Amino acid sequence: MRSIRLKIFRGTSNSGEFKEYTLEVEEGMVVLDAIHRLQATQSPDLACRWNCKAGKCGSCSAEINGKPRLMCMTRLNDLPVNKTITIAPLQTFPIMKDLATDVSWNYQVNKKITPFTPKSNAEWHWEQKDIDRIQEFRKCIECFLCQDVCHVLRVHQKHSVYAGPRFFVRMAALEMHPIDSADRLPFLKTDAGLGYCNITKCCTQVCPESIAITDNAIIPLKERVVDRFYDPIFILFRKLFKKK
Question: In the 8-state DSSP scheme, what is residue 90?
């Protein structure tokens, strides 16, 4: 048993402040364990969101010592010893209460994306390399840590014109699917605001599933948008051979 000091945000979007606690913890505990013990012993009204405690539901997202992380996958032993551990809610989304944020905006963005649309009379057999290319994107657990750390949303508040890294991952999985027939490039260029991303790779750094968001999803999508809408040769080709 050892004592740790916690500084946790308490309040809502309208008003709130960080409150300090001292807590006895044991070897091997994660941050979520500490939150549960705090709820059981000192502060039963402390609000946080969690579900699986196995790093697969994405519910317990928070900012631990200023870095977006999953509380259930962050061991107390890995944090600086003898220093106060600061736990704050995701800053990109409205705070409902304490560590619980309202992430419903993400689901509204998701509804705007054209779903998987297979080609007519498609052959449902394809090469392993095509499966491998999109399988990585399916690992996303929608923790929205990438959305939280993205400066376009976090700093510039471009929620109305920018979809964010999580949904670029989803659209990459659809666009690269070998039998999908939908065209999402106009949406990526306009409503999704792909051009706002300046490739800082901060989203990749915080992904708990180690998805190469920037290299494997965002950059290939940017290349496709540039080829379609900005390449002069491609534009000339389309004008010459455009279907009536």
Answer: -
pLDDT tens for each residue of 94-118 = 999 999 999 999 999 999 999 999 9
Tens of pLDDT, residue by residue over 116-134, are 999 888 887 778 888 888 8
Q: How far apart are CA 89 and CA 96, in angstroms?
A: 9
Q: Which long-range contacts (CB under 8 A, 24 or more apart) does 156-165 make?
A: 156/196, 158/193, 158/196, 159/105, 161/191, 161/193, 161/196, 162/192, 162/193, 162/196, 163/109, 163/112, 163/113, 163/191, 163/192, 163/193, 163/194, 164/106, 164/109, 165/197, 165/203, 165/213, 165/217, 165/218
Write down the CATH superfamily of domain 2-101.
Beta-grasp domain (3.10.20.30)
All CATH 1.10.1060.10 domain ranges in the chain, comma separated: 104-241
For residue 122, give the 3-state DSSP assignment. coil
Angle between helices 219-229 and 232-241 (to 10 degrees): 50
Cα separation, 56 vs 234, in Å, equals 42
Domain with CATH 3.10.20.30 in the chain: 2-101
161-204 pLDDT per residue, tens: 999 999 999 999 999 998 999 999 999 999 999 999 999 999 99
CATH 2.60.120.380 for domain 104-241, yes or no, is no
pTM of the model: 0.91
